[in-house]
Structures are given as structure tokens and as C-alpha cells.
User: What shape does this take?
Amino acid sequence: MKGERRNIKISFNSPAILGFTIICFAAVILGQITNDASTNAVFSVYRSSLLSPLTYLRFVGHVFGHAGWEHFIGNIMLILIVGPLLEEKYGTSNIIFVMLAAALVTGLVNFIFFPHIKLLGASGIVFALILLSSLTSIKEGMIPLTFILVAVIYIGQQIYEGLFVPSNVSNLTHIIGGIVGASLGYVMNKNKMNRY
Assistant: This one.
């Protein structure tokens, strides 16, 4: 019809990914306002007393904290590219579970094995989602070549950088996040997790 006006609406298409992004954004701003006091208290994980309730919060909360805007943008851009498609395929609750699992496992590993290193950032989740995305077309008895390539390139790069490139990047976190994403992707593709 001529003259018919279409209303274009913005949709909140990916609640888990968008919610995660908003929390990370708020954590970075809060970190800047508090001169990193909030980042140290809640949004990074390191060896601390098991008697402190904040220690347990940090096991997961570290994924929301970032060292600055460049760190935040680097992680969030990849999450915003890959995450919504995965959330549409696997469902919001499963993506939240993948993110929580990656956060908890990487937080615990850092707490136990690297007591003097402060870990923060969503890179473990980035790698979990990247490896999960490469498993989206898995079929019974077949491993997608894309999964093998992604695993070799991303995890191989992390191993190489961890061994030969001095930096403050936690390559082990990337590898563990990728393993969590691949493992849960395998389980979800075998229909062992409900998709809602």
C-alpha cells in the first residue's frame, strides 16, 4: 500500500549476550570511577582468603572486569559477533550456562594454580564461544573440519604464545575456555541439554 508507514523497532535479540555486555560495560566504568578498587574487589580473581565471601564472587565476577577500554572492546566485539547466533541456536539458558561454566572453571584454575596472578576479562568466554560456534553443525559420527581448524589455530596460537611470547595475557585461560565451550557444545549437540 502506498503511504503505509513501517515502524522499525530495535529488538533485544540476545538477552544473555546483551546482558553480559551491559554488565561488563558497567564494570569498566565503575572501575574507572573507583580507581580500580571495584575491579580488585569483585571483577578479578586472585588468591585470597576462603573465609571472604568476595573470594567466591570473584570466581565468576572476574569475567566482567577489564583492564581498560581496549581490553573490553577486544573481548566484547568478538562476543557480540559470535554470541547472538549461538544464543539463537542453543537458547539463552544454555549460553548463560556456558558462560558461567567458563567463568567458574577459569577462575578456579587461576585461584588454585596461579596464586600471585590477577585474572580479569572475558577472554575465556570468547574462546568458549568460538569453539562452541565451530561445533554448531556437528552430526553423529562426524567432526566438522571447521572445528579442527579453529581448535588447531586458536589453541595452537595460545600454546605458542604462552611458551614463547612474554605478555600479561593468560593463555591458559583461553585454552580452558575453549575446552569448556567445545565440551559443552558436544553435549548440547548430542541433545543432552534442553534448549530454551
User: Anything to note?
Assistant: The mean pLDDT is 87.
